[in-house]
Specification:
- The complex is a heterodimer of chains A (290) and B (174).
- Chain A has 290 residues and is mainly β.
- Chain A has one helix spanning 6-25; strands spanning 47-58, 62-75, 78-85, 110-125, 128-141, 145-146, 149-150, 154-164, 168-179, 190-199, 212-224, 228-229, 232-233, 239-252, 255-269, 278-289.
- In chain A, the strands form 3 sheets. Chain A has a 12-stranded antiparallel beta barrel. Chain A has a two-stranded antiparallel ribbon with strand order 6-7. A two-stranded antiparallel ribbon of chain A has the order 12-13.
- The two termini of chain A are 36 Å apart.
- The relative contact order of chain A is 0.20.
- In chain B, strands 4-5-6-8-7 form a 5-stranded mixed beta barrel.
- In chain B, strand 7 (151-158) and strand 8 form a beta hairpin.
- Chains A and B meet through strand 4 of A and strand 1 and helix 3 of B.
């Protein structure tokens, strides 16, 4: 896995400090769970920016990823999203087995364009909403190889259904990312299931524009297929991981802050990939609504 | 007033509007003064922020506030606005939420059209059909005593699927 150089670590630390400072002095706002699929709302003509830092730690390595996601509300039920890496390093983090930087945000160093279509919604009461959304994405890599495999463009599709209220939230989602062959290489496809449950404590159920915080429990199950190199399957690639952990989302005004950590409860990696077994996966996102 | 009534008989609604313009010019009010729109499906601060921003961007809106816990958007309008309830509800829909019933405060002039139906006309050519709110009979009776052409400020309920049918809750003759 990728180990960032000292200068980069300092830069990431600065960003973290700035983010912490920002959220302590201004109002915060955001979308939903840190890792799982959700059904974010964005009004017609609205823009939002999500800046994410993700850290995956194994026994021997830490890998970092910094990504930006810009969302635009085409209408109340259709969002256009583009996400891209901010880290200019040539190294490839989050590479083995394949994973995404959160279900809503592309993989590795991909530039990903997505459409979110909320195809079903119902508002049965004040402060309550049931809805289902599909996500369709096309991604192009910015690096030549990932985990020693030539990486090609990919296609991602997912669906999520959920419930939102002033007290509780839940979302259940599933997705699949298919990588196209490049040369005679091909990254294994990534299938995932995600679940998130959130609770907003009574102290944070005060009315807008008072602070709005909620606590999540998230679960993510990922199954990555084997990579193909020169037309031959790499036995030391792919596998299954199940991760569970808490996250928090703080909202108020035009800013948002979310942070979470997932811990593996099961890891079955193919072949000799012990070094890639995760110890934890952490993520922090800052959101700004235009 | 005699001229007004005579023309009303020959020209109906169109004349009502032209006189409303005269009346509203005298007071400076155009129509809707305040709207309290019930909103379903709004659960979080970004939802409220987006809706509030969207409403405040509307031309003619003086101030907008949103309540998550009580599920409404309250809109205060400038005196010379031409905003309609339909436009406010469209902003709610554009933000992904469901507009339900609304309470409005509206200024206009009274007229009686076919079968003595009471209508309220505003300076911006909007016309509203008036009816009695179930538990506000005294307001309705007060309205019945006012002559055509009276300038009034009405507080009324508007059902979810209506934009021009007002159930009158209170009346103030100006």
């Amino acid at each position: 896995m990728y180990k960032p150089p000292r200068g980069q670590l300092e830069r990431l630390s600065c960003l973290l400090a700035l983010a912490t400072l920002a959220t302590s002095t201004v109002q915060a706002e955001g979308h939903g769970p840190a890792f799982a699929l959700a059904t974010p709302t964005l009004g017609k003509g609205q823009w939002s920016s999500d800046t994410t830092m993700m850290n995956m730690a194994t026994e021997e390595d830490d890998s970092y990823l910094l990504r930006e996601m810009i969302s635009y509300g085409v209408n109340a039920d259709l969002q256009a999203i583009i996400s891209f890496p901010l880290d200019g390093s040539d190294n490839v983090p989050m590479s083995k087995p394949n994973t995404r930087a959160g279900a809503m945000m592309g993989a590795g160093r991909d530039i990903e364009a997505s459409l979110l279509w909320r195809f079903d919604r119902e508002a049965p009461a004040i402060g309550t909403r049931r809805e289902s959304t599909m996500i369709m994405s096309l991604a192009a890599p910015t690096e030549d190889r990932r985990a020693g495999t030539k990486v090609g463009p990919s296609m991602h599709i997912g669906a999520v259904t959920g419930f939102a209220s002033r007290e509780t939230y839940w979302w259940l989602g599933a997705g699949y990312q298919h990588y196209f062959e490049r040369g005679r290489d091909q990254l294994g496809g990534l299938a995932y299931l995600s679940a998130a449950f959130a609770w907003r404590p009574p102290i944070f159920q005060q009315d807008y524009p008072k602070p709005d915080w909620r606590i999540f429990v998230e679960a993510l199950a990922e199954h990555s297929g084997r990579n193909t190199i020169n037309g031959i399957e790499d036995p030391n690639s792919g596998g299954t991981k199940v991760l569970v952990g808490p996250s928090v989302l703080g909202l108020t005004g035009p800013f948002g802050f979310s942070a979470g950590v997932l811990f593996p409860v099961r890891q079955d990696l193919n072949g000799d990939q012990d070094m890639f077994e995760e110890e934890y996966r952490a993520k922090m996102t800052l959101t700004y609504w235009f | 007033m005699g001229t007004y009534l005579c023309l009303m008989k020959s020209n109906g609604r169109a004349l009502c509007v032209s006189l409303a313009l005269v009346f509203s010019g005298a007071t400076g009010a155009a129509g809707l003064i305040e709207v309290k729109q019930v909103v379903y499906g709004m659960d979080c601060a970004p939802c409220a922020h987006g809706l509030e921003t969207g409403l405040e961007k509307m031309s003619g809106v003086k101030n907008a506030t949103v309540s998550l816990n009580d599920g409404y958007a309250a809109v205060e309008l400038n005196r010379d606005n031409s905003v309609t309830l339909g436009q406010i509800r469209q902003v709610v829909k554009d933000n992904g939420f469901t507009p339900k019933s609304a309470t409005v405060e509206i200024f206009g002039t009274l007229a009686r059209v076919n079968n003595n139906q009471l209508v309220l006309s505003t300076a911006t050519n909007q016309q509203y059909t008036l009816s009695a709110a179930p538990d506000k009979q005294s307001a309705w009776e007060q309205l019945q005593t006012l002559p055509n052409g009276s300038s009034v400020e009405i507080k009324a309920q508007v059902a979810e699927d209506e934009t021009e049918q007002l159930s009158v809750q209170s009346v103030e003759a100006l």
